[in-house]
Design brief:
The chain is α+β, with helices and mostly antiparallel strands. It has 6 helices and 13 strands. Strands 1, 2, 3, 4, 9, 10, 11, 12 and 13 form a 9-stranded antiparallel sheet that branches. The protein is elongated, with a radius of gyration of 42 Å.
Amino acid sequence: MSPEMSPEMSPEMSTDADSRAPADDTAGETAANAQADGQAPTDDTADGAVAASTEDESPDAGPGAQRPGRPRKRRKRSFWRELPILIAVALLLAVIIKTYAIQAFYIPSGSMENTLEINDRVLVNKIVYHTRDIHRGDIVVFNGDGSWDPGTVPANGNVFQQFGDGFASMFGFGHPGDILIKRVIGIPGDHVACCDAQGRVTVNNVPLNEQSYLYPGSAPSVSRFNIKVPPGRLWVMGDNRFYSDDSRDHQGDPGGGTIPESAVVGRAFIIIWPPSRWRLLPIPPTFNQPALNGSQAAAPPSDDLLTARAEPTAQTIPLVLGFAGAIPLTWLQRRARFRIAARRRPGPKR
């Protein structure tokens, strides 16, 4: 045999053979393991081992796996889709609260001092007089149109008309009327007069001890009056009697200075602003005298004045309350919807 055809392998060939040897051994071991497990070995076991390992390490492996980031995108889309619903529910609740339940007013004048000071904010309960009658001593917010001011006596419409008016006023439309705030002194059938020998206002010939709420140094009244309150009407006065334009100054108007009960918006029950003035507005003890409800006896015959107005505040409070109610409602309906969807989703196949 000639030297050119020597059976010895070249270094390059030896190197190739050595590099293939571990792969062949791995394939052989894999095949042996497969036979031991009762599976038939395949030719591409060695090549497939690496691919299977790569697939097992992928986050997408498995029938129930989800790609990272996809649930987060669904949540964002769900939030933006439900945001208009949240806003609509909040506005609806705000209108309902403002129209039928509670409304905030601020005090622009001093005729109710010192009980209510200028720029105080009060909450007015609109529900209370649907559950009980107006009481003596209540501080009421009412519409002066048709009694002390020109115009027609306000009439409460049905539920839908009230909702429409409340919705319009939320956005600055409609005519709220001349809204005033006073304390109720006489209710229908009461005999209200000024004054007895000590200068006190009397109701059904019972003197009122008013010093706990009158402006310091203010007399109960400097003007005389003697009136029996007609049915369905109220006699009201301010707590700052020197500067209050109230029933005493409108005795020549329709109703003899009284206001219709139908004009009452609600009862002011708490001062909410400023924080240093936080307090409830209870009925003074003098109006709890049992004799006030007794027989009506005859009573003695009968500056710059301020009418205590109560201006509606901005719609902040009803909107805040509306969103406070809308957020849990929206959250609950989302949970209910997700639970229903989870029950309808088919389970994994076995």
